[in-house]
Amino acid sequence: MKRIDIPFEQFTVGPVKAWQKDWLLLAAGDLSVGDWNCMTVGWGAFGVMWGRPMALIVVRPIRHTRGFTERYDTFTLSGFPETLRPALDYCGSHSGRDGDKAKVAGITPVAARTVKAPAFAEADLVVECRKIYFDDLEPRQFLADWIEANYPKKDYHRMYFGEILAISGVAKYRAKD
Ligand SMILES: Cc1cc2nc3c(=O)[nH]c(=O)nc-3n(C[C@H](O)[C@H](O)[C@H](O)COP(=O)(O)O)c2cc1C
Q: How far is the C-alpha of 94 from the C-alpha of 3, rounded, in Å?
């Protein structure tokens, strides 16, 4: 997929649709040494923190990807055309512990522009991030009683703020001047 560089100021993405409907593929690790993993994510945000472009992701402790978000400094978030929804489905329902998910899903890891975590050849959006903050959700601080229902196993997410270092995507992700 041919992607163009997108300055953060011109990044246009549906703040709900991108996550809740389209989904994104989180990848963390180091492609050059073959040590990485990916998983589908539907919760998170793009925004601004400490005056810088930021992506927020949340990862449960059980995820194989979690070891990679812990051990490595960078991650990517990739969007795909609708025709590749089965790939996102697969990566969101199988674990990298059990095999090469990307291969089975038919997506091709390629070098990202600025980070060691992989991008994907078929992606129509790649957001490259460096971890800058993490914290674990604290159930004592849930202020709505329905939140806890998301955690029957008490496997509270760890959230990571990533500083966005680069964005590349197809034209629809770039606002017209
Ligand atoms: C649409 C969708 C959204 C998901 N969002 C998240 C998420 O935001 N955080 C999370 O920890 N798991 C999320 N998951 C679950 C992981 O993608 C899934 O457990 C995956 O198999 C983990 O793979 P891994 O063990 O290789 O890391 C989501 C799954 C789907 C299908």
A: 28
What distance in angstroms lies between residue 154's CA and the mean position of ligand 1's atoms?
16
Backbone angles phi, psi at 162, to 5 degrees: -115, 130
Q: Tokens in use for 46?
A: 């793009």
Q: Which of 39, 64, 75, 98 to mutate to test the pocket of ligand 1 (most atoms within 8 A of CB)?
A: 39
66 falls within a domain: yes
Per the domain annotation, does 177 fall within a domain? no
For residue 71, the enclosing domain spans 4-170
Residue 69 near ligand 1, beta carbon < 6 Å: no
- Digit-coded pLDDT (tens) for 157-168: 999 999 999 999
Helix spans in 72-156 (H): 85-91, 101-105
Q: What is the dihedral of CA 20, 96, 156, 44, to 10 degrees?
A: -30
* Main-chain phi, psi angles of 76, to 5 degrees: -125, 155
CA 167 to mean position of chain CA atoms? 13
Whole-prediction pTM: 0.98
How many domains does the chain divide into?
Answer: 1
In DSSP terms, which residues pair with 24 in a beta bridge?
41
CATH number of the domain that residue 32 is part of: 2.30.110.10
60 close to ligand 1 (CB < 6 Angstrom): yes
